[in-house]
Amino acid sequence: MRFGHFDDERREYVIDRPDTPLPWINYLGTEAYFGIISNTAGGYSFYRDARLRRLTRYRYNNAPMDLGGRYLYLRDEETFWSPTWQPTQTELDDYECRHGLSYTRIASRYRGIRAETLYFVPLGETLEVWRLKVTNERDTAVTLSAFSSIEFCLWDAQDDATNYQRNFSTGQVEVVDGVIYHKTEYRERRDHFAYFACGEPLAGFDTAREAFLGPYRSWDRPLVVERGESTGSIAHGWQPHGSHHVKLTLQPGETREIGFVLGYWENPRDAKFDPPGSQTINKAGAQAKIAEWLDQATVDAGFAALAARWEELLGGLRVQTPDTDTDRMVNIWNAYQNMVTFNMSRSTSLYESGIGRGMGFRDSNQDLLGFVHMIPERARERILDIAATQLPTGGAYHQYQPLTKRGNNDIGSGFNDDPLWLILGVSAYVKETGDLSILDEPVPFDNAPGSEQSLYEHLKLSLRYTLERLGPHGLPLIGRADWNDCLNLNCFSDTPGEPFQTTENATGGVAESVFIAGQFVLAAKELAGLALQKGDDPTGYQNAAEKMAGTIAEHGWDGAWFRRAYDFHGNVIGSASNDEGQIFIEPQGMCVMGGVGLEDGTAARALTSVRERLATPHGIVLQQPAFSSYRIELGEISSYPPGYKENAGIFCHTNPWLMIAEAMVGNGDGAFDYYKRINPSAREELGDLHRCEPYVYAQMIAGRDAPTHGEAKNSWLTGTAAWNYAAVTQWILGIRPELSGLRIAPVIPAAWSGFSAVRRFRGATYEITVHKEPGAAATRCRLVADGVPVEGGVLPVAPAGTTVQVEAHLS
To answer: Strands 179-182, 764-771: parallel, antiparallel or unpaired by DSSP?
Structure first.
């Protein structure tokens, strides 16, 4: 069943019924001010950090699931309703939500009144705009009331959810010229506050939630809206709220616009504040900004600028292939999701509260893979931020807070794959930009002043971290976990039912990871390439990669696939000798991507085993057979029911590794087949089974062992986005940045006759046309650039500002 459709021309997904299986969300903002918004206007906003600078309140794990948001109410002489359906859930005569690139537009019609609300964050601003258009389609004049509603939450969002004894007494607001200011934090810090403004003369306002809702009422029937009159309440503690009341009289056919601005303001630290103890905030700068964005001409210009920005960003790569789903994802939605995952890491969605997780060290390095070509300068800044959290040992905090850029001690370190991802992230950046100067940038360890060393030294230390932590078989120690956070193999218990997990340096923490071994081979080769570009000797890194590949062949190969690991007791994991968990997806992908087994045929054999044992119609499951009971020696992985998450779920993040691996062995049909199985656009018809948004990737799809096989969870914030983009654009379509230039090496399905693409690369534009005989499984590529044959498959870097015509002939 479908709940909407793609509008490719406008780059929008159109939802035509509000009761989607789950809230289908979008993201507002691309720089510093962000928000999530659902198809019924649920969600919240924050500045930079969803925990430390959250503007509005939202309730996770509630019923209904999507509760709290940017709510509007309309009221005529007889009744009231929500033009976004939530929260009143009035049966509207017509409804449409258009999720676009960093904006959402929700329109509806009820009792002859049409309402359309546009939500977006202007470029360069720390605010969001709501533009409500109300049209009277009745035959007679109508008098309407419009009420806005948000809940303020500008303090630590964790504290907001737990420390009621304090927060119920600290909330403060100020209302000046109809603008509602939330100034609770300002009283303590004297530098920042939130505001909510309306561009029309007010008939009233409310700032206390209990006054707006009334006793024992919820958002579906606020007392103020029901009565049609605001109370003018001023919050003193309890629950600060923001609501404006505007009265409209509309003639038949008349349309009126009402502008709202919700924003964050931070005064400079050295600004001259009012005397200590003053109850008035320094809002002069904010007032000018509010006036600017309540002007509809400014709003029109700002929205046009946002559209132009996305036109520019998406122009970095555009493709035209024989497959609509591929074109739609590559040209629009996958690229868009890459921007969101770059900004958010895994911190803020309907499944991540923005409180427990910040920016991931591993995650953010991987997100660069799909983002770096869009805004390289931001990718550069992010790399330096990530590297500055690295520890002097070469290890890494698993996560860090985006506002402070400090490592997260609550999560800590010891995930032994983390440091190697920094090499892969930096390599991707240098391949895209050619900017070797980043390697010489001084970067501290653990953000400690005086500890600076070059980024290049950080990379070398990342590699050394692995080499200094090898286990009994010569494979890398897994530490707390590797990429699979739930595979905790250093767990043991002296007392049944009481697990204990060692730290990376704890006595006896000897569990080893074949996955990290494959990752090390890949990272060592990448570092060797960077060393060669710097004029250094790459031999040591090349030898280390070769030696580790040999160790994998000796201790990581199980006869038909790569093993997964060795546990604390030295028992093999991911082997035919196991009763459950015999084969895992991760080492099959990562080892092949590292080049292990490509020459002796073991790579191809491993990929055959994946297709035979792990592939399902909805994607490739993480392992088989699923673990049927909890096993303390494996850790959290076996705590999940079979078919979910890490216990044999389809963890979509790893599926692109197999797409890349299939392309590396020349199997275009196999690579593209896996790509289509989890492509959200291709799964649109499965809306009531898939349940998540059909325009972005989800982290997980329930595996074959699950009762809900094919159901998706945890959409938006997943490494699936960047890796799928890399898999399809760089390996299947074969347009791949390398240190020496742009490689063109398509490995496309046999049925295709070719495709075309436009790719910006290091300031030049490459217009690429690929030709192939339909039905031929061709992998050899002959290149011609501007009429001149190119040997070796790599296009040399063209001068910035030039356009290169490229013909690729596959045979």
So the answer is: unpaired
First and final C-alpha spacing in the chain: 41
Q: What is the pLDDT of residue 800?
A: 97
Point out which residues pair with 159 in neighbouring strands: none
758 neighbors 765 (Cβ within 8 angstroms): yes
Condensed to tens digits (0 to 9), the pLDDT of residues 211-247 reads 999 999 999 999 999 999 999 999 998 999 999 999 9
Spatial contact of 164 and 362, defined as CB atoms under 8 Å apart = no
The question of whether 485 is a catalytic residue gets the answer: yes
Domains of the chain: 4-310 (2.70.98.40), 735-810 (2.60.420.10)
Token couple for 331? 């040209």
* 609 DSSP 8-state letter: H
The answer to whether 469 touches 476, Cβ cutoff 8 Å, is yes
Q: Which pLDDT score, from 0 to 100, does residue 284 have?
A: 81
Q: Is the pLDDT of residue 152 over 80?
A: yes
- Among the listed residues 660, 784, 809, the one whose alpha carbon sits nearest the alpha carbon of residue 732: 660
Report in angstroms the alpha-carbon separations of 496 from 506, 633, 663, 717: 21, 12, 47, 37
Residue 185 has pLDDT above 80, yes or no: no
- Predicted local distance difference test score (pLDDT) of residue 499: 45
Count of Cβ atoms closer than 10 Å to residue 776 Cβ = 13
Beta bridge partners of 624: 583
Determine how many CB atoms are found less than 10 A away from the CB of residue 619: 28
> For residue 201, how far is the Cα from the chain centroid?
39
List pLDDT tens digits, range 387-397. Answer: 999 999 999 99
- pTM of the predicted model as reported, rounded to 2 decimal places: 0.95
CA distance 595 to 522: 7
Which amino acid is present at 250? L
Angle between helices 376-387 and 334-344 (to 10 degrees): 30
Catalytic, out of 485, 536, 669, 673 = 485
Taking alpha carbons only, the member of 152, 237, 229, 227 closest to residue 195 is 152
Query: CA-CA distance, 119 to 395, in Å (whole number)?
Result: 42
Tens digits of residue pLDDT in 567-613: 999 999 999 999 999 999 999 999 999 999 999 999 999 999 999 99
